[in-house]
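User: My collaborator sent over this chain with a note saying "see what the structure looks like." That's all I know about it. Can you take a look?
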Amino acid sequence: MNEISHLSLASSKSRTGMRPALSMRTVAALQKESHCASPLLTFMAALNDCITATPVSHPVLARNVGLVSAWQEWTARQEGAPDYRSIADRIVANQCNNFDACVELVKESMRIDPIWNQGVVTPPSAQQLDTSGVFAAAPLMYWRRPHVLIELTPALEQLLDRSDLGDDIPADLLRPPMPACYIKFSEAMQRAIIPVKFEDVICSHVEGVYVRRCAKNSAPWRYCEFAR
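Assistant: Without extra context I'll predict from the sequence alone. Here is the result:
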């Protein structure tokens, strides 16, 4: 089966519902105070960058800011695993684990981190953990599995804009070319798609979609908004 997550860009006026477990300002302050590199802070700095709207496609942005290496170092340090080979990272890389499972994994890794017990920062809220888990899991799953970034031709985009799939077509018939895919939309395609509305986030357009193969006991399609 397949699951799909589509990425929506949010206006700068509606950031209240998109805060990760640690803001960039808090990360910078803690890094300055500690005078040493912290794996969690390095990961949170990269995660904050992944929520920033840029012209770069989301998986490329995640690669450029070092999200994957930061995740591997942090979870390996947390588990005491050698050579960045943490159990958490292997779970993300395993194609049998779907998006929801990986989101919960990221959230649990954050919950158990000892930084919250030091009394320096307030533990994250449920909403902040949700934001962190969603924005981290999607690109991590993309880069830790065989993947491909697909750019649609103008002719194919026009065809997709003028057609739709019927409810009688099983999702299993639509097989992605790789276990993890990112389909990048052109500006014309972005204008043709109406983003799903959030309660506290104003989405302007859909940049693209993550498409992944998932286990057979998972829901055939998984829609998840990414507001950036």
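A starting point for your reply to your collaborator: Confidence is low (pLDDT under 50) at residues 6-16, 218-228.
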